[in-house]
Design a protein that fits this description.
Isopropylmalate Dehydrogenase; 14 strands; binds nicotinamide-adenine-dinucleotide
Length: 357
Amino acid sequence: MKEYKVAVIPGDGIGVEIVGEALKVLEKVGAKYDTKFNLTEVKAGGCAIDEFSVPLPDATLEVCKNSDAVLLGAVGGPKWDTLPGEKRPEKALMGLRGGLGLYANLRPAKVYDVLKSASPLKEEIINKGVDLLVVRELTGGIYFGERGRDVQNGINSAYDTERYNVEEIKRIAHVAFKAALKRNKKVTSVDKANILESSRLWRETVTEVAKEYKDVELNYLYVDNAAMQLVRDPSQFDVIVTSNIFGDILTDEASMVTGSIGMLPSASLRNDSFGMYEPIHGSAPDIAGKDLANPLAQILSVAMMLEYSFNMTEAAKDIENAVEKVLNSGYRTGDIYTEGSKKVGTKEMAKLVLAEL
Ligand code: NAD
């Protein structure tokens, strides 16, 4: 029997509810595939502020570092909104990404056939299908570059610097190409190489890395065009690889294309198999504790963990298929409900997925 250590951070709000359900799915899959997951639950976010006065206690980071993967719910809520920046729950996310060296953020955006009406795009566009993966560089670029304020010619000024080195670009490009090999073998590199020097280095480096992946087709788009193409014809994309700031913006746009925030998982990876897995949505304080949250993004985050950290591709597919079957049978949580479908709560939705497994 294989064994893995998983750090579990339910966090705040609906995080607690949906992580609880997702763990049932993990347990069931473990039994089926003769794998034991040793779970250690730790605190981060608002609940950690309440108990330890900091959003990310050292002990939490330590447990994560000593695990094979981290499963995270969501952090934050109105109770902590008035705290200064450094003490806010969301600071825990930065601490985890930086502290664990998670440089690659993977966000799939997929429109399920039966949920097409949730997309804000026109039917003829969405009918062509959307199943793409954005690979965003997460620990470099302008969010981490030199910044400051000064006075120039007597006028107050501020600056932020976009800087990438070849190694940073290479490693994220490899993540994208490897992901493409498991998908439809197409990578679109997004930059602003017509203007920015850092983008020209980005493009040169991605082109070099591509030579190691002869089976993968590579094309390039300027970020402004990519933003437009995502809503004009998202079906053209398989894997998109891009910098931290462009990825930040494009991932939100891509998730909006699907129209269902409660359905989308994400992974943040480093260069071994270690990763942190979480839904893209927040702690949804407006519906917390009411059995209203959609647990599917969290359950699909478990599938990503199995695929990327434990190489359990078949088990991950089982979960994805189970989710699809439940949706095809007409069950919906409130966020994806349309007339004629069967409305269920958080627990019931997870139960249906478990039954399909
Ligand atoms: P949110 O994603 O929590 O909620 C936005 C809207 O989507 C709400 O109406 C919510 O009810 C709904 N929603 C979100 N997830 C859902 C689900 N699984 N099922 C059904 N409905 C769902 O974003 P927000 O309201 O801007 O932020 C709330 C808190 O979460 C804030 O404190 C914010 O800082 C935090 N946040 C945390 C993360 C994270 O932990 N990674 C990410 C984003 C926001």
